[in-house]
Each structure stands twice: as C-alpha cells, then as structure tokens.
Amino acid sequence: MYNQRKQDVTAKGSTAVHQKEGGMWLWYAIGSAVFAALTSILAKIGIEGVNSTLATAIRTIIVLVMAWGMVFVTGKQGEIGMISSKSWLFLVLSGVATGLSWLCYYHALQIGQVQKVVPIDKMSVVITLVLAYVVLHESMSVKELIGGLLIAAGTLVMVL
User: What's the count of helices (H) and strands (E) in the chain, helices before strands?
Assistant: First the structure.
C-alpha cells in the first residue's frame, strides 16, 4: 500500500524534484545530525532547574513558529486544503509520536547523562529499520542488517 502511494507520487512529478535536488538530501541529513547533536547539548544546559515537560513545551513553541514561518516564506500555506484525510490521520499520529518522544527525551536528559541518553535515543535508527521492513514492507539488504546490528552493539557498548 505504501509502496503503491510512493509510486503514484513519483508518477505525479516527484522524480523531477529528485533530479533537480540531486545529492542535496545528504547535506540536509548531515545538517539534521549536526542540529540534533546541538539540540542535546543545548537542551541539557537549558533544562537545568527547569521542569522537563515545561522545557519541552517551550521548545515545541519555537519549532512551531519556525515550521510555520517556513510554510509562509515558501508560500505553501495554500496547499493545506489538498491534504487527504489519510495523510491528516498519519500526520497527527506522527505528531503525537514526536511529542511523546520529545517528552521522554527531555526527561531522560534531565535525569540522565547525555552520553548515555543520546545513544539509546538513536536506537530509533534500528527500530525504524525493523518497522520499515515489517510495516512498510521495504526490503532490507545484508548491508543494512549488519549496519543496524552494529548500531545496536555500539549502543550497548556506550551505555553499559
């Protein structure tokens, strides 16, 4: 089902975007990793003496303002009416999962050590690989399987 939707989207012109952007995904992924690392360090400093739930709410307001700012800067606000009910459902569920993740993460950061919390949080990579295989029926190569096992092993080494 997901793969069919992915093919339908590609058939509607997504291919042109991928060709135009080329390898830009890599730079965005690197930026994501750098900013995620900064998030952990800045959050650990920022939550000192602040309730982790309150800190998460403050962070969320900033993210909300930045995200909607980009929507308006890029002129995409008019596309909100074109979102299907299925997409709404899964975007809402994704938002709930994100909120729960952030609440857990901030509380873990507040009471734990960054060098132990972050590797466990990054186990999401391994969990995502498994869920992509089981739920989305994406293939998993031997290389991806070995990489996932190495991430899991590395996490254990870092936290034990």
Answer: 8, 0
